[in-house]
Amino acid sequence: MMAADCVTKVELSVSCNNLIDKDVGSKSDPLCVLLLNSGGDKWVELDRTEKIKNCQDPEFSKKLRVDYYFEKVQTLKFGIYDIDNKSTDLGDDDYLGGFECTLGQVVSSKKLIRPLELKKGKPAGKGTITITAEELKDNRAIELEVEARGLDKKDLFGKSDPFLEFYKQGDDGKWQLVHRTEVIKNNLNPSWKKFSVSLQTFCNSDMSKPIKVHCSDYDSDGSHDLIGIFQTNVSELQKTSLSSPVEFDCIHPEKQKKKKSYKNSGVVKIRSCKIVADYSFLDYIMGGCQINFTVGIDFTGSNGDPRSPDSLHYMSPNGLNQYLSAIWSVGQVIQDYDADKLFPAFGFGAQVPPNFQVSHEFALNFNPSNPYCQGIQGIVEAYRVALPQVKLYGPTNFSPIINHVARFAAGAAQQGTAAQYFVLLIITDGEITDLDQTRQAIVESSRLPMSIIIVGVGEADFKAMEFLDGDNGVLKSLTGEPVARDIVQFVPFRNFAKAPKEALAQSVLAEVPAQLVSYFKLHNLPPVQLPKPVAK
Fold first, then answer.
1. Is 173 buried (19+), middle (13-18) or exposed (0-12) by CB count in 10 A?
2. Quick one: CA dihedral 115, 116, 120, 121, positive or negative?
3. What does the alpha-carbon distance between residue 134 and residue 129 come to, in Å, rounded to a whole number?
4. pLDDT (tens digit, 9 = 90+) per residue, 20-30?
5. H-helix or E-strand containing 373?
């Protein structure tokens, strides 16, 4: 799948009220321009609305389109201009005010109403701007249950091992594979598992688009034998019902040619065909889902004495270290999705004042009953205050902090709605002690609305972290229970030492949208507020 195919496109609707009046004798002729920050004070124009004549409360009908990435901070500027001439250059037109925000803020607020400013801190009269976002997509999927009977026997010693392949016809007439079922061994009357494919992928949302189905006999050497073929389309598949199921003769073209009396090589029956809603990450976010962000920081002795320049906790003269860089990078993105901006932050593996007991989940602000920090800046300040007061110690136990967040996620899960999701960021030098308990904690958390991001700082060998990430195989608990879904993403900070500061967040957060959707899907939870159906 090319990345370009899965970019989410968002459409912004803009209206304004009480625009200032720049035209003598008539009202302004406003237009809205959408700019995207491309770094520093550089902006590129993404789109613009139409101009509306003589109007101080315009509602623009042309929507502004923008590609949305959860893992990036996309800073937007909406500029309102009074257009007095035919040129597209805005330099010679009056500026009626503007507004800056991130795309994350827009999608997580459903409707944003803000004052317009002529420049920072200077309001544009009583002018306001209203922005709403909608995702551009067809959120339907097709769900099929298919079986066959009387298939031809293709194997010398056993029956056939049948599987189905569904193809849609492209505009160029070529056939594109859209779904392959599992293989059912040694069975001429197979029943395949129910499957679902997005309607866009299956037939470009076109119910009459030709669909071709191949039924083949599986051979482990890849030389699968064709059993038969039939053609159909979605509107035909939808006619199936329990009392009169839709059935197709599976035809083998060569056999048909050879034999006059040839009827078919088996019959394929559509047991059920449903069109269902297939919700996206933005459906959940715009439907009111909050992402709760928690940070866990490794204060174990293996980091080195914070006063020594070779310690991972050493503050460079610019007041930064790898721990803070990781908090900033990930926090900047995720804060837009949490309405109250109160983030619990914990440390582990240190001796903590006043009596210097070792703790594996102490509040960074030393207030266990209220461990919340105000904004990402609040986490950074709490860290800077705590660092000189704790004694780095050990061992490095992850499970207490994972279980801490899991308790909150379990509480949210009991509500049975898609209202909350939890992301835990653990920053560590990677020398984990309680690997077995951590495996258990991750397996249990994989059944809860949460994801875990681990950023490894320093030069350690991160084999254990890569093991927890489970990308090379399914992570299992000690008793052999596998994770219900993949929820851990690990990256070593050193891979990003030379990269722009946004790169770390893009790498670790890219998987979160799919993880969030996979949890709510697993539990059949729709968005709290359902999206409007797509007009077709």
1. exposed
2. negative
3. 17
4. 987 677 788 99
5. strand 372-374
Helix (H) or strand (E) holding 204: none
CA distance 344 to 336: 16
What phi and psi values does residue 443 have, to the nearest 5 degrees?
-60, -45
Cα–Cα separations (whole angstroms), residue 204 to 178, 209, 277: 11, 8, 15
DSSP secondary structure code for residue 191 in this structure: B
Q: Which amino acid is at 168?
A: K
DSSP of 407-430, one letter per residue? HHHHHHHHHTSTTEEEEEEEEE-S
Measured in degrees and rounded to the nearest 5, phi and psi for residue 70 equal: -60, -40
Q: Mark 284-303 as b/e (b = at least 16 C-beta within 10 Å).
A: bbbbbbbbbbbbbbbbbbbb
Mean pLDDT, to the nearest integer, of 454-481? 87
Q: Which residues, in sequence order, are bridge partners of residue 402? A: none
CA 42 to chain centre: 28
Alpha-carbon span 63 to 74, nearest angstrom: 18
Contact 406, 312 (CB under 8 A): no
pLDDT 10s digits, 410-456: 999 999 999 999 999 999 998 899 999 999 999 999 999 999 999 99
The more confidently predicted of residues 338 and 170 is: 338
Distance CA 372, CA 303 (A): 25
Residue 314 clears pLDDT 80, i.e. is over it: yes
Residues 6+ apart with CB under 8 A from 208: 233, 234, 235
Map 447-510 to HEC letters: CCCEEEEEEECCCCCCHHHHHHHCCCCCCECCCCCECCCCCEEEEEHHHHCCCCCCHHHHHHHC
Q: Is the N-terminal amide bond of 309 cis, ω within 30° of 0?
A: no
- The residue assigned the tokens 């395949």 is 192
Dig out the tokens for 293 from the structure. 């962000």
Residues linked to residue 267 through DSSP beta bridges, in sequence order: 149, 249
pLDDT over 60 at 535, yes or no: no
Q: Is the pLDDT of residue 64 over 80?
A: yes
- Report the pLDDT value the prediction gives residue 5, as an integer from 0 to 100: 41
Of 473, 493, 492, nearest to 483 by C-alpha is 473
**Strand ranges in 151-241 using DSSP code E only, listed in sequence order:** 162-169, 175-180, 195-198, 211-217, 225-232
pLDDT > 80? residue 204 = yes
Return d(Cα 388, Cα 306) in angstroms, integer. Answer: 8
Q: Which two tokens stand for residue 225?
A: 């034998």
When pLDDT is averaged across residues 250-260 and rounded to a whole number, the result is 93
Specify the residue for token string 């939808």.
238
pLDDT at 6: 52
Contacts of 203 (CB under 8 A, 6+ apart): 142, 168, 178, 209, 211, 233, 234
Distance of alpha carbon 423 from alpha carbon 509, whole angstroms: 10
d(CA 128, CA 57): 9
> How buried is residue 200: exposed, middle or buried, by Cβ count under 10 Å (0-12/13-18/19+)?
middle
Over residues 99-146, the pLDDT tens digits come to 999 999 999 997 999 999 999 999 999 999 999 999 988 888 999 999
